[in-house]
Specification:
It is built from 15 helices and 16 strands. The chain has about 575 residues and is of the alpha/beta class. A seven-stranded parallel sheet has the order 5-6-4-7-8-9-10, sandwiched between helices. The protein has a three-stranded antiparallel sheet with strand order 1-12-11, covered by helices on one side.
Amino acid sequence: MKARQFYRSAISAAVMAAISFPVLAANDSVPPVPFEELTTVKGTIIEPVIKEQRTRSKRSLSDAAGQLDGDWFNLDPEMNGIEGSSVDRVYDTITLAPSDKPVVVAVIDSGVDVHHEDLQGKIWENPREIPNNGFDDDFNGYVDDVYGWNFIGGRDGSHVAYDTLAVTREYKRYQAYKDYGVWLTPDEKAYFADVEKEYLAESEAANSKYQAFKAMYDEAQASKAVLQNKHGQTDFSLAAIELVSSDDPEVMKAAEYLVQTLSTWRSFDYMDSMLERYSSAVDYHYNLDYDPRAEIVKDQPYNPWQFRYGNNDVIGPDASHGTHVAGIIAADRYNQLGVRGVASNVKIMALRVVANGDERDKDVANAVRYAVDNGAKIINMSFGKAYSPYKDVVDEAFRYASRRGVLLVHSAGNSHTDNDIKPSYPNRFPLYYPGHRIGTWLDIGASGNYKDQRLATSFTNFGKDSVDVFAPGYKIMSTTPGNNYQAFSGTSMASPVVSGVAALALTYFPDLKGRQLKKAILETVRTYEGHMVKNPATPEVMVPFSELSATGGVVDAYQLLQHLQEKQQ
């Protein structure tokens, strides 16, 4: 893997100078570092790509309890013994006539592969725009916005692939304030003191992880070269290396090291992905010098009300996360390929705002307004961050969406923390309207597939006041770019399950407004009275599942549709 150079400013260099690492001699044996799951910067757990699982008959996954259906989120505890969202039961039993008009769901995310085989016929197309004529036919300020819009691209078609984290940007802003002698209020000083403490701790941890892993990675590559050059080895799977036998002590030492390393780190492909993950944190996420906006987007970064920038390429350089989210909502249920999405009569509006890093407030606000103005009934937001410097701008966009009756569905986060204590952003609590809440907002935690002590997943955020309901979010298989299918785990997967269930409800009851739909979803959750689970924050402590969210339950499409049908009669 090509290594990147870490460019550092004077500030970056000062931070890095305070961090020291042990220097390893060239001949020292480097012990394997402790295993970590491959995750995105947002904490979504990524399983290996499953290239051969294109047909329905091959979509099962391995689980601790045996084989697990890849789209188990559609299953039902009574019918299947799995704590899914009871979607299949709706299709099997509900006899209501659906509306002919598709439900438009905006996916604000990393991009969507609109050409994926399992999303054909499921992508929203702007009816007022003539494709690729270079003209803004509908006069909305976005030229050729056929499938949606990319708010983190340049007008020349370029893309922001990586970005810094919000804590990095806020720490950099604090450094600028100090350099220019800007007077700060006591509250601002306290805020930036927390920012500084968090940035320095996290950047040091990121660099430490990268240095330790890189040393192990280099040792593994050197051992691989020994086996290639001196033993003719071509198969570097763990099973093959365990069979290596040689009289050459250097060959055996290399083989032993690789057995030890791959027993922990699975494969060289997995190690390549982990190196990318660790190096991205150093090169981009915590890099005080990195600023892709200036060279690519060329917007006014400190003008949060600016709009009409970006480009119309909604796929971008890495649409894995957004395509996965879109597939959970909308993958074709009837084509015998891949997975079955929750809603069958739905169109995905693709809005790209999330690079490999933290999204920016102005992009989120503009994407929300675009979605509302172009007919989205539901907006799915599977992202979040620790700081929101222009929260008021985002709040106004959410209030606009809520007034227009749009349901806002947001993932609670994957840091196994209590959102009531430490909020994440965006959220339902407007900065300048104390006591007010966004009325059509839902925050979603991630549940597991069995009614056991792991019903609340180990990674999920929770909160009796700030998280509304849980939904399946463990080992969810869905669409990824290039007609691939992959299993991810995270609240990012739970959120589109709820968005899909909401879209399914609107398919049969199209006149429901956002507040009505939210109320119905929350009133019909599947509850687990007295059921004890591991506390995600302190897994050695058992807590009632009912205490982890406002409803204490898991979204249930069947109960929702039954409830709406009864109210109609």
